[in-house]
Amino acid sequence: xxxxxxxxxPEALFKVxxxxxxxxxxxxxxxxxxxxxxxxxxxxxxxxxxxxxSSAAQGSTK
Length: 62
Hints:
Elements: H1 9-18, H2 32-49, H3 51-56
């Protein structure tokens, strides 16, 4: 994995800190987002596959 320039980190952090609505979570670097997309796609697929069972756990709403 290619390492970035650590001198670029403070500028990125200040942009987040100074933002009107900063994110609760923030990835530093360009390699994280593709990994997160894959991980969440796998999680969503699992949750969607089990949605009927999950919904049944709520019981009857009538």
